[in-house]
Amino acid sequence: MTILKLPPRCYQGVTPALIATCAADGTPNVTYLSQVFSLDDRHVALSCQFFNKTKQNVLENPYASVQLYDPVSFEAYLLELRFERAETTGPLFESMKLRIEAIASHTGMTGVFKLISSDVYEVLSCTKLDAYLELSSIEIGSKAEPLAGPRSELRGLQLLSQRLCRVGRLDELLGTLLQTLEEAFGFEHSMVLLADETGQRLYTVGSRGYGEQGIGAEVKLGEGLIGTVAAQGKLLRVSGIEDELRYGRAIRAAVNQSAGRRELRPEIALAGLPDAQSHMALPLVSGERLLGVLAVESRKRLGFDDWDEAFLEIVANQVAVSLDNVLLREQGEDDQTGSQPPAAKPVKPSDQRTLRFRFFRNDDCVFAGDDYLIRNVPGRILWKILRAYHDSGRTEFSNRELRLDPWLGLPAVRDNLESRLVLLRKRLEQKCPELSLVSTARGHFRLEARCQLQLEESDGS
């Protein structure tokens, strides 16, 4: 028997599916499904997140009906299914669990909103419900116009490869990557986050399509979509994210109102666009080591498809190799420049306005005036530079000098110094344009100040 093949977008969860089951005595039950996963032409997997009536029914009576919807044409399809087995381990279970864990993390439902099993069903029949909609009411042709000429993955990879292999610095690599993703393939909103020296947090060092926001934003491993991807080391694509979050919040509200109320973690704010509907995040991995995450998003409910996923996974692999090479090369070249920094070049104090900087020792946080600027390792680096400039007029510094300063607390191996300097430069451009860190040679830079400095330190108490 031939089974009708559904468009892949029907399985992306943009429009929630419905499942109908019957108990052994014939009592029906209809509810929404969190996830329908296509295995092959004859099998699908449904997410089981609670020991609910649906699961009880199929254990008594293994037949079910699922109604799926095409989120573009709004056509409906009816699947007649027969329950075969429940999987609680393996690739299928892990793939379905990743998506649910990410949604649970955002809604503060980790450990409550979780996948119990991936229930595999045989597809007995698939029927298109022709009378579901009147075609005259559908806006035919509302999809975006195709790209001019054939969409050439090879040409795009060629362009990206040519550009990446020519960059020599981390900031150049990040800018080239994000610019090429937009120009060649239309990814208008993208960001790169790198792992810090502890490996427990990610911080944003490059973004495109967000204006000045986002640079320096931090994400803990395991929290939210990006943190989950970093912790699991697996790609994640989510469409119709608002529906997913709404479902998770509804479960959260029910848990809060139940008799067995428990303490729940706060909801994690989505990084990036506040109204994004589609997200995709990919781990940047070199060997067994997590370097960071590449994330893209869109306001379209079906912003990304299988092609985007396959293409960006290739891109992420190439970027991870380029990123690792750039960081290792820069650290190696710094190690060969000698331990003595360039001679100090006293400068005449600026007659422009005075800018007050405050450093809080308890959390290494730097404020420019009353506005937060930066913290942690980049905060300590900035304070060391400002202190030297304020006390002696010194403007020239070297990466090696920073690496040898025990107060900064950089690890001996793979210290991420270059990414910290990139972040610091961008934060100064955005929040304090009177100060600039200008590269003068490989592993050397100069502080340019267009203001007078007033420095204050506090223990933060």
Task: Please describe what this structure looks like.
The chain has 461 residues and is an alpha+beta fold. It has 3 domains: 8-131, Roll (Pnp Oxidase, Chain A); 157-258 and 268-333, 2-Layer Sandwich (Beta-Lactamase), CATH 3.30.450; 354-458, Arc Repressor Mutant, subunit A (Orthogonal Bundle), CATH 1.10.10.10. It has helices spanning 53-60, 91-106, 153-164, 170-185, 224-232, 241-257, 306-335, 376-392, 399-403, 417-431, and strands at 17-22, 28-33, 36-40, 43-48, 63-69, 76-87, 117-128, 189-195, 201-208, 218-220, 236-239, 278-286, 289-298, 354-360, 365-368, 371-374, 396-398, 435-441, 444-449, 452-458. The strands form 4 sheets. It has a 7-stranded antiparallel β-sheet with strand order 2-1-5-6-7-4-3. Strands 10-9-8-13-12-11 form a 6-stranded antiparallel β-sheet, with helices on both faces. Strand 15 and strand 16 form a beta hairpin. The longest helix is centred in the C-terminal third of the chain and has 30 residues, at 306-335. The chain is elongated and about 85 Å long. The model is unreliable at 135-151 and 338-350 (pLDDT under 50).
Beta-strand percent range:
25-35%
* Integer count of domains: 3
**CATH class assignment of the largest domain:** Alpha Beta
Largest sheet: 7 strands, antiparallel
Using the alpha-carbon principal axes, give the shape.
elongated
**Could you name the ranges where pLDDT drops below 50 across 5 or more consecutive residues?**
135-151, 338-350
Number of strands: 20
Order of helices and strands: EEEEHEEHEHHEEEHEHEEHEEEHEHHEEE
Oligomeric assembly: single chain
Structural class of the secondary structure composition? alpha+beta
- Helicity range: 25-40%
User: In CATH terms, what is the fold-level topology of the largest domain?
Assistant: Beta-Lactamase
Q: Distance between the terminal alpha carbons, to the nearest Å?
A: 74 Å
Using only C-alpha atoms, the radius of gyration works out to 26 Å
Number of helical segments with 4 or more residues: 10
What's the arrangement of strands in the largest beta sheet? 2-1-5-6-7-4-3
Q: Say which CATH homologous superfamily of the largest domain is assigned.
A: GAF domain
- CATH arch. level architecture of the largest domain: 2-Layer Sandwich
The averaged pLDDT comes out at: 81
